[in-house]
Amino acid sequence: MQVWVRRVLVLCTIWPLTACAGRQSALDPQGLQSGQILHTLFIFLAVSAVVWTAVVIALCIGMMRRKRSADRPLDLHQAFEERSGRVILALGIATTAVVLGLSFVSYAGQRTVFAKDEKAHILKIIGHQWWWEVRYEADSPHQSFVTANEIRIPTGEPVRLELESADVIHSFWVPSLTGKMDLIPGQKNELQFTAKNAGIYRGQCAEFCGIQHAHMAFAVIAMSPDEFGRWRDHENQSANSPADPLGKQGEALFRARGCALCHNISGTLAGGQLGPDLTHIGSRTTIAAGTLPNNSATLGAWIADPQHIKPGNLMPRMPLQSDEMIAIIHYLEQLK
Ligand code: HEC
Ligand SMILES: [Cu+2]
């Protein structure tokens, strides 16, 4: 075989397989529910493969044994008719058994995927065009806080999401952990999952929800229960007050330049609700719903011209002097 033919063949085989692992793959399950879904998929795949192979073999045999058409096609052959009747009956029973069997497998799988656990951690996720509001709600308001585009959860413990939408229909999907569930205006859907291993899993909106739908991603960060507890305690606290003059200037500008109309920063006078909560923005890994990594350069680029990065998104371009920009970025970065 020519070398280039071999190379092309190898590439063609490897290419589709490269998508089968990593932090966003239903074929590399890291949660109880995604494991169950994959298990169900494999059973369906195996049974369908057997049925398909049997049908193709029967077809080939039929084609090879084809006789010349009879001289008198309307003649009745009693024995042949009886034999075909039995074969058709047997195939009918087999088909029914396969369909019922697969229905049972699917039902059994759904009992795990849609199980509800009373002890689950409850989070509220609200879809917005085009970002995710994440509310950790506890019985006491002092234990409740809000964040965005990043969901931290403990490993080995069930987490139940209450899914809502502020505008259009979105769909919550973290292939590594569980199946999809829609966020529908005026309706509360629930989705429960348990992450088996610590790690960062990527999720994204799986329902076309407007022009920036493709830039509506998020991260699920699964961490040990101890680490999660510490993170939660920290996240509960109000924002850091800046100690240095540049930070203080940034805090004042954040209000003076209108940012506070849309963004909340707990413990300060900024209480806007239209955009993501920025109380601990400095400790988040990405900005603009997974569009950019979070660092001073990308923060600057975003604030300077959010419409260039995510055209049509609901944050307007705010006219800022470069020294004002530097102060605001400095302020936001220390909001760990
Ligand atoms: C009219 C409301 C509005 C104003 C005013 C506004 N923002 Fe935003 N901001 C938003 C929205 C909406 C988003 C989410 C955009 C998206 O990802 O689709 C956002 C996103 C952000 C983000 C990224 C947050 C994240 O977690 O992804 C930062 C940082 C930010 N804004 C800073 C600012 C600063 C600084 C100002 C003032 C100069 C400002 N915003 C003014 C609405 C606003
Ligand atoms: Cu969406």
From TrEMBL:
Catalytic activity: 4 Fe(II)-[cytochrome c] + O2 + 8 H(+)(in) = 4 Fe(III)-[cytochrome c] + 2 H2O + 4 H(+)(out)
GO MF entry, a single one: oxidoreductase activity
Record-annotated Cytochrome c domain positions: 245-336
Position of the signal peptide: 1-21
GO biological process, alphabetically ordered: ATP synthesis coupled electron transport
Bilayer topology term: Multi-pass membrane protein
Cell compartment(s), UniProt: Membrane
Any one of the GO CC terms: membrane
Primary residence: membrane
Top-rank taxon, per record: Bacteria
Record domain Cytochrome oxidase subunit II copper A binding: where: 118-234
TM stretches of this protein: 41-64, 85-109
Keywords recorded for this protein, A-Z: Copper, Electron transport, Heme, Iron, Membrane, Metal-binding, Respiratory chain, Signal, Transmembrane, Transmembrane helix, Transport
Function noted in UniProt: Subunits I and II form the functional core of the enzyme complex. Electrons originating in cytochrome c are transferred via heme a and Cu(A) to the binuclear center formed by heme a3 and Cu(B).
Family: Belongs to the cytochrome c oxidase subunit 2 family.
NCBIfam families assigned to the protein according to its UniProt record, in alphabetical order: CoxB (TIGR02866)
Protein name: Cytochrome aa3 subunit 2
Natural source organism: Bradyrhizobium canariense
